[in-house]
Design goal:
By secondary structure, this protein is α+β, with helices and mostly antiparallel strands. 16% of the residues lie in helices and 40% in strands. The chain has helices at residues 2-15, 148-161, and strands at 22-26, 33-40, 43-50, 61-62, 67-82, 91-98, 102-105, 110-127. Strands 1, 2, 3, 4, 5, 6, 7 and 8 form an 8-stranded antiparallel sheet that branches. The radius of gyration is 16 Å and the shape is globular. 26% of the residues are buried. The mean pLDDT is 94.
Length: 171
């Protein structure tokens, strides 16, 4: 997944100038996540702005696909666990991930939570082909898309701060 992340980061400045991104505002469990995403081959590129929440609140969850995450700004507490099924396993480790931290979750039974500290965190996540895994289900209402103005603001933020278009490239 590290090679895929590198390949995506090489083309991301140009992709950020395009307007074919989807969005989602995740509010059913803390922390609140503003997500802008698009497909890239068999992968998905997800840009996250994750808002702080209180200790003990963040959702502990597995992912339905392998993923790699690069924290671009801010920092968050992350708890990590491992377990089959849909019941939460014990938290085996807690760490603070800051700007520049990159981690891959490549086992279907990996679980984690993230809790931004002090300010929203910004991250790039790349996901692979979904695997067959039973997922914990809650009674979650459909999540709304972000306002188009907020999508544009987030794309500009990622382009300006983290992935600017290099001179000589057009977008």
């Amino acid at each position: 997944m590290f090679e895929t992340l590198s390949a995506i980061e090489a083309v991301l400045p140009e992709l950020l100038t395009q307007r074919d991104w989807n969005s989602l505002r995740v509010t059913y469990e803390p922390p609140e996540v503003e997500r802008v995403w698009r497909k890239w081959g068999e992968h998905r590129i997800l840009l996250h702005c994750i808002h702080p929440c209180a200790p003990g609140q963040p959702l502990f969850h597995p992912h339905p696909w392998p993923s790699i995450v690069k924290v671009l700004a801010g920092r968050y507490e992350m708890g990590v666990g491992y377990g089959t099924g849909v019941g939460s396993p014990p938290i085996a480790m807690t760490l603070i991930a800051g700007a520049g931290t990159t981690y891959a979750m490549t086992d279907r039974d990996s679980w984690h939570f993230v809790r931004p500290l002090d300010e929203p965190s910004f991250s790039l996540m790349v996901t692979g082909v979904p695997w067959q895994r039973d997922m914990p289900r809650g009674d979650h209402p459909p999540q709304p898309a972000l306002a188009p103005e907020r999508v544009d603001e987030l794309l500009r933020e990622f382009a300006g701060r983290f992935y600017p278009l290099r001179p000589g490239r057009s977008g």
